[in-house]
């Protein structure tokens, strides 16, 4: 008798630690190293059933998969900058090292490997525990620690390789995903929804509520900017009153979560004030949304979250939510 597929597939690899940003950079290998160490122990601070999770190595994204989102000229520029060990590309925030281009290819390809497994019914949900993050990267521009737009590459791949035409990307990183929005703002078949700190106070200064897409894509961009200090109650209200109706109306064939954990009130990269418990609620919402609209086609991609121990705690809560593990210590 064959065993049922695991509920959750996690893509990870020690190569993601080889993107060297230096000891004083917030997007450091230490954040993912902390996640991998706890994962190797079975996330002992969380009650995740071991038989519900399996792992998958990434594979590098192919050139044709990347040029669906990025220009050939930009890919060459990024590769040359890394191999020349220039230190950063375009802005000191975008630090790189000799291995950065190779690792960025793996980060962009991790979601694609997971999508193939989801489409083969080898899991009901998947996540990529990767770096560098991606949602700020634009067609020919790195920005905000991001070089390749992992979520945008995954969305196009899901459409082109597996013929899933209607993709919804929900981004709850504390910062607006300008790169994802720019990639799809005129595309009626990719719905980009972002909850983030208001651009008046937050990097990168985009994601105003009036930005709703353009041309044929008008109405398939939805920005929900929050004032500094916003906490769980406002996000949960938006899930019920705005996001659920948007999901119902758009009826996606696949769901991608740009999962940033930097909205926590102890992460100093934003002024938001989320609790650890909110991420469990977000996990439950993601699982329920996928079950309702696109069963077996839920992918999350790690974006921000810059305090390693806090990232582990919030990610563990999110995974508990995805796997419908009831909380034992609310607010943990």
From TrEMBL:
Pfam family, one: Hist_deacetyl
Domain Histone deacetylase: 25-321
Family matches, as CDD domains: HDAC_classII
Domain of life: Bacteria
GO biological process entries: epigenetic regulation of gene expression
MF-aspect GO terms: histone deacetylase activity
Family label: Belongs to the histone deacetylase family.
Annotated protein name in UniProt: Histone deacetylase
